[in-house]
Amino acid sequence: MKIGIMDSGAGGLTILNAIRQKFPALDLLYLADEEFAPYGEKTPADIQGRIIKIAQFFDAEQVDAIVVACNTATVCAIDQLRAVTALPVIGVEPAVKPAFRMSKKRHVAVLATPLTAASERLGELIERWREDSRVQIMSSASLAYAIDDWPTSKVQVEATVRTLCAEMIQSDVDTLVLACTHYPLVKELFTDALGAQCEIIEPSEGVTAQLMRRLEQAYPEVLPAWLGEVRGSIEIVSSKGLENMPNLIGWVEDSAALLVPKSVAISDYNAVIGA
User: Fold this and answer.
1) Where is the domain boundary, 201, 219, 251?
2) Is 107 assigned a ligand-binding role in the annotation?
3) Rounded to whole angstroms, how far apart are CA atoms 166 and 190?
C-alpha cells in the first residue's frame, strides 16, 4: 500500500518517521510543498485551493490514503479535502486532550503557527477538553520556516526556542503542546530549555494510530500485506526543486530506503473545490 504524506516543508517528516517505525511495509510518498511555503502566511482560501491541487497530485500517484501532516493545512482545509476525495484522509490536530489530562499544575502552553493559533478548530479543541486548566496559546511566525533551513538556521532556531521557553518558564507552564509538525524536529532544544519538569506532547503517535484505524476500515482485505515484514519504499518530492533536498533527507530516519528524490509542479494541477 502507498500512503501520501504532505506538509509545507520538513515538518511532516516527524509523522513519516513515526509511520515508518510502526508500519515499515508501507510505501511512503512525501510531498514538501516548499514552493507554497510558509503556509502560515497564506489565507485559508489559498490553502484550501492548494490542498485540492495536492490531492490531485496524490490521486495521479495512486496513493491509498492521504496524511495531511501539517496543523495549518488541517485546520484550514481538511474538510474541503475530504469533500473531493474518497480516499481516507488523516489530519493532524494539536494534542491538547492528552496534555490537559497530563498537566499536574493545570497550566498548558500550546505553541503553533499564527494561523493555527487563531483558528476556530484549535479554540474548539481547547474548550472541549480544558476543564479547569489554564491555557497559554503561543505562536511564532518564523520558527517553522527557520527549521526548514536547518542547519543553516541553527543559531536563529535556538534563539527563538530560548525566548519562547523563557516565557513558558516565567508563566509556570508544566505541559507544552507542539502544535506544528516542524517543532518536534527540534524537540531536544525545547527539552533542554524547559527541563524535566515540563512534559512535551507532539502528535506523531496519535496520527499513526489514526492512520492504522482508517486503513483497517477502508482496506480490511489487505491488512496482512501492509503489516508484513518486507520494507516499503520512501520517496521524497518537493514542489520547489531539488536545492533543499539534502536538508529534507537529513530528517528521514530510514534514509537507506529512499528512492531518487524529485521535483513536482503542483501548480500544474487544477483545483476544483467542492467538486
Assistant:
1) 201
2) no
3) 10
Angle between helices 71-84 and 44-60 (to 10 degrees): 60
Question: Which grid coordinates belong to 88?
Answer: 481516507
Element (H, E) at 134: strand 134-139
| Residue 262, SS3 per DSSP | strand
243-267, pLDDT tens digit by residue? 899 999 999 999 889 988 889 999 8
30 among the known binding-site residues?
Answer: no
Any known ligand binding at 153? no
* Nearest partner of 251 among 266, 231, 236, judged by Cα: 236
Tell me whether residue 104 is in a domain.
yes
Catalytic residue numbers, as ranges: 70, 180
Is 145 part of any known ligand binding site? no
CA neighbours within 13 Å on the CB side: how many for 251? 29
Domain count, the chain: 2
Q: Which letter does DSSP use for residue 271 in this model?
A: P
Query: How many angstroms separate the CA atoms of 119 and 128, rounded?
Result: 15
* In-domain check, residue 177: yes
**pLDDT tens, position by position, 202-216:** 999 899 999 999 999
